[in-house]
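name: query_chain
kind: protein
chains: 1
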Amino acid sequence: MSITAFPMLARIIHEQGLSKTALGTLALAAGSLDDAAAWCLLAVVLAAFQNEPSIAVLAIGGGGAFLVFCLVVLRRLLAPMGSRVERNGMTPELFAGVLMLLMLGAFVTDSLGIYAVFGAFLTGAAMPKGRFAAEIERRMHPLTVSFLLPLFFVYSGLNTKIGLVSTPTLAGIALTILAAAILGKGVACWGAARLAGRAPGTPSGSGRS
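structure:
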């Protein structure tokens, strides 16, 4: 109930100017792990209802294996690309290869029963930093922020059926769930900030108080 949708979290971090800060990176990493854990739990529930343990094994085991592959093996395989871009810049052919690699990563996690965005996220995390990352961001940012992200919210809205909450009982349940989600996020983040020594009103980019 306290998990923020990963694309929404990424957008919030970007709009607040935290995408290149330690706080933003930490929040994004934690959000990705939380959301991935939720999908794994969903796989466990589906496996229990359908009496198919393979669903949970595939999601959890396959997701863990893909995580290790991206952060250990794929990172080393892609390292030469970073050096190439530092010397010669980002060519159209290389950029097309990066896009195909991102889509392949999304396809893998989607096939495992985990949200496709995690495959792209892990693939991106394995890619070289520096000029390579800056070139990818420069080319993809207008498309993702101005076109793909709005489409995501439109698609989500079209698949949200508010009319199904048609009785006072269902409305009460929905409001209770909403309150639990808001409190779970707000109170938990407030408590974590206080435990970390951050005073109320401290700017997000500042250090410990």
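note: The chain has a mean pLDDT of 84.
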